[in-house]
Amino acid sequence: MFNFLIQFIREQYRTDDFIPLHAPKFIGNERDYVLATIESSFVSSVGAYVDKFEQEMAAYTGSPSAVVTVNGTSALHMALILAGVSQGDYVLTQPLTFVATCNAISYCKAEPIFLDVDRRNLGLSPQAVDAWLDEFAFIDEAGLCRHRADNRIIRACVPMHTFGHPADIDGLLDVSERWHVPIIEDAAESLGSLYKGRHTGTFGKIGVLSFNGNKIITTGGGGMILADKELGIRAKYLTTTAKKPHPYEFYHDETGFNYRMPNINAALGCAQLEQLDSFIENKRLLAKNYAALLANTSLQFISEPEGCRSNYWLNAVICENQQQRDELLKATNEAGL
């Protein structure tokens, strides 16, 4: 049934070997930059490539500040802390996401509330969020959004730009403003994706990126916090152990986190960022080919939302039913895809 798709994928990659969801490519300055960190001896949490990567990512995304972390989960955790999420709070999010999203919420001893996604973009549905809040929430005299049943604060909303497709940001921001629930964008999969010409992760209170080995660019493992200048300074302080600046004394005035990205990883990121545009171009070409192949089939290809540019990190289809989904997964996995 799916032989046509399996054959197409094999033709795209020109191999009979196992084909993963995504594989990193190191075809630029990665070796030179990593070697430079080794020769400098600054391979750990301090070094020129950390600063360079943050500056270049801020420029690329248009964010006032960009703070690197050791992985995307740590960036999500810190974003929630910066948004004031604490024990007993609720955080609205979507079930179609990586487990890191709700893990980070749990780290804060808060509770995730899972709401439905929009079939058009696979991101959190503004209509679903608004309907849930209308039924279960109210705004108190202090302007805080609370749950009617137990009076607990609904502190944040974490939509995901799923597979690189921008969520309905305008709709989510409208709900956020009316209900006083700040948006934290989980843009882990959407580096290079644009919503109405603006980079994902720069619309909400805070945005989060990931540079895991399976992302569109990688630092081996890494994450990033996108925020305004004030929150960026705060994020940098807390993710680098909350240490007061001093030539030799070690004084920490609050609980901090050792979420620092090593310089050697940042070096890899700088080299990868230089190639991001070509990576996206290749991803988009592959998506175009998939869309053409599947146009007259029972598999509904997920295309970028209107007015957006998706990085097409991963390509996805909606199946007719669960049986077709299971058959597709079985056939492709047995074929080494």
From TrEMBL:
GO terms for biological process: polysaccharide biosynthetic process. The active site is at K215. The modification N6-(pyridoxal phosphate)lysine is found at K215. InterPro entries: DegT/StrS_aminotransferase, LegC-like, PyrdxlP-dep_Trfase, PyrdxlP-dep_Trfase_major. GO terms for molecular function: pyridoxal phosphate binding; UDP-4-amino-4-deoxy-L-arabinose aminotransferase. It is an enzyme of class 2 (transferase). Its EC number is 2.6.1.87. The keyword Transferase applies. Keywords: Aminotransferase, Pyridoxal phosphate, Transferase. NCBIfam families: NHT_00031. Belongs to the DegT/DnrJ/EryC1 family. This is Pyridoxal phosphate-dependent enzyme. It comes from Legionella feeleii.
